[in-house]
Design brief:
single chain, mainly alpha, two-stranded parallel ribbon
Length: about 100
């Protein structure tokens, strides 16, 4: 049986779910999207600056999803860019503490 490959959008949302579940404060990403304010241009506004996650943990989560979905080089880069420039929680590093 051939396993159906997940879409990149689904992978990105899975990563966002895990990032927000591990952020301070913790949040349910699906609820954030559902309750998001609609901006003038029709996009949803997620208050990502209200949440914070350790930068190393964020990298681990992204890498885990990239590995388990066996993405090619182009898709790996597209996922990273989408997460880092999208609505992921702000990152903190141990130096910042």
């Amino acid at each position: 049986m051939v396993r159906k490959k997940k879409s990149l959008t689904n992978i990105v949302f899975d990563i966002y779910r895990e990032l927000y579940a591990n952020s301070e404060p913790k949040a349910d990403f699906d609820l954030l999207v559902e309750n998001a304010e609609i901006m003038d241009d029709g996009r949803k506004y997620i208050p990502y600056n209200d949440y914070e996650i350790d930068g190393d943990l964020m990298d681990e989560i992204i890498l885990k999803h990239i590995r388990c979905n066996r993405l090619d080089k182009f898709d790996k880069q597209a996922i990273r860019i989408e997460i880092l420039l999208g609505c992921s929680p702000k990152t903190k590093n141990k130096i910042d503490e």
